[in-house]
Amino acid sequence: MSGLFDVTIIGAGVIGSAIARKLSSYDLKIALVEKECDVSFGVSKANSGIIHGGFHHDSTTLKSRLEVKGNLMFDQLKEELHFPFHRCGILVAAFNNDEMRTVEKLYQNGVNNKAIGIELCNHERILNLEPKLNRDVVGGLYAPGGGIIEPYRFVFSLVESAKKNGVELLTDFKVTGRVETDDRYRLESADGRSIESKWVVNAAGLYSDEISRIFEAEDFTITPRKGEEFLLDRNASAFTSKVIFPAPSHVSKGMLVIPTAEGTTMVGPTAQMVDDKQDASTSKANFQAIFSSARRLVPAVSERDIITSFTGLRPTIEGDDFYIEASSIKPRFVQVAGIQSPGLTAAPAIADHVKDILKVEGLSLSEKPGYDPYIEDVPRFRNSSKEELDALIAENPAYGEVICRCENISEAEIVAAVRQGHDTLDGVKFYTRAMMGRCQGGFCTHKIMKIISRETGMSMDELTKRGGGSWLVNKKVGDFALRDRA
Ligand SMILES: Cc1cc2nc3c(=O)[nH]c(=O)nc-3n(C[C@H](O)[C@H](O)[C@H](O)COP(=O)(O)OP(=O)(O)OC[C@H]3O[C@@H](n4cnc5c(N)ncnc54)[C@H](O)[C@@H]3O)c2cc1C
């Protein structure tokens, strides 16, 4: 960390990371600051992972324009950044004439938004596209351009690429204050560090209202809208070939059946306004609502397949559209707030849009000679053929050591995660998928802790689940023995 930055982006979720990567293609000194110990630990880790098909919002909204544009950017991004992404297609299922009328409006949105290949389906066509659908389906919508992605892995890749092209990532940097002089801001962190920057982009997700207040810029409120989801085993018979939506309500896209990019099935999410920006609880009532709604779409959905559940909070703002504008109060300060769904889909288009705003506001952008959009692809044990594995093991025997048996993750992949800077249990989990399978880390957690300790030199009692005080070990067996004898 040194000197004066041209641009500092606050928040390393998918939005801040996409902006950092975009700006790294220009001759600029850029900082990406994040309050957590790793990137993508906010809203961007707990979502449905859908690359939306461009039909839920009408073409007058900024969010629909950026959704459609963002969707189209993912094939190229996958080439460059190697994250799990499949353009599997999306279906919206209607079970009566009222729902079919809602679906027809979505179809019209899709046509107006120029969503590629969008199609209205009758009963036969939709069942043909997805035979696991409830046979009571009347018809629906097919959006072949929709897809699924591993969201945290996407963020990790964006940040790896940004860093490769010169962006400085500062984690554990919680912006709590700012001092403003003529042509720059000093950003102060809770731990006493500070940096200076000419321009600041506020991409702080749920906390973008607080950042705006710290900068004495626009006054707005971010209200969390909670979404609970359940993850089903990779062998669940509910796994569909396409993402299945119900006809939506006016507040939510509804509770879905989602085949995840890595082969498990997800059901949910709920949509409930809450006050607490840290409320990650799940409830029995919502569990029942999710499963009955999902089973209405796909009868094979079963509680017996549950692996785990989680909650994400959408950062909603009054007016319900994205709020992406240069501040009209503070110079060289850009607001990127209210980025709820489809923020993941729109992220690369938002990054482009923010770059354009910065340019109009006077930031000088000249392309960086030597910018390299590609990062290295880490081979995966479970995606490799026997011949590929033999070659990998011959070069690096750690590929022959399977650490996570449920997800088939080798020691080499865990070492790669740690060497990329993901040195907490959650960091390794989201980078590799280790501990995400049926046993949820029951078998491999201690093996992973040993690898992190060996690679970083940290002792076992220094290791954390996700930074801060989330230590994994706070007593040694000997401590208990001594206390018990006393
Ligand atoms: C349940 C659910 C399902 C969703 N499903 C989809 C979907 O299928 N498809 C889709 O397109 N979108 C979906 N979304 C929306 C999508 O997840 C969000 O739009 C997106 O992740 C928002 O990213 P972000 O970078 O703005 O926020 P975040 O990921 O929260 O990033 C903001 C970052 O700022 C950091 N920060 C905050 N305050 C400070 C500070 N003071 N100093 C430094 N750093 C700070 C935070 O720690 C955080 O990492 C879903 C959302 C939810 C909740």
From TrEMBL:
Residues 6-355 form the FAD dependent oxidoreductase domain. Its EC number is 1.1.5.3. It is an enzyme of class 1 (oxidoreductase). Pfam families: DAO, Fer2_BFD. One of its GO terms (molecular function) is glycerol-3-phosphate dehydrogenase (quinone) activity. Gene3D superfamilies: BFD-like [2Fe-2S]-binding domain (1.10.10.1100), D-Amino Acid Oxidase, subunit A, domain 2 (3.30.9.10), FAD/NAD(P)-binding domain (3.50.50.60). It comes from the Bacteria. Residues 402-453 form the BFD-like [2Fe-2S]-binding domain. InterPro entries: BFD-like_2Fe2S-bd_dom, BFD-like_2Fe2S-bd_dom_sf, FAD-dep_OxRdtase, FAD/NAD-bd_sf, G3P_Oxidase/Oxidoreductase. Keywords: Oxidoreductase. CDD domains: GlpA-like_Fer2_BFD-like (cd19946). This is Glycerol-3-phosphate dehydrogenase. It comes from Spirochaeta isovalerica.
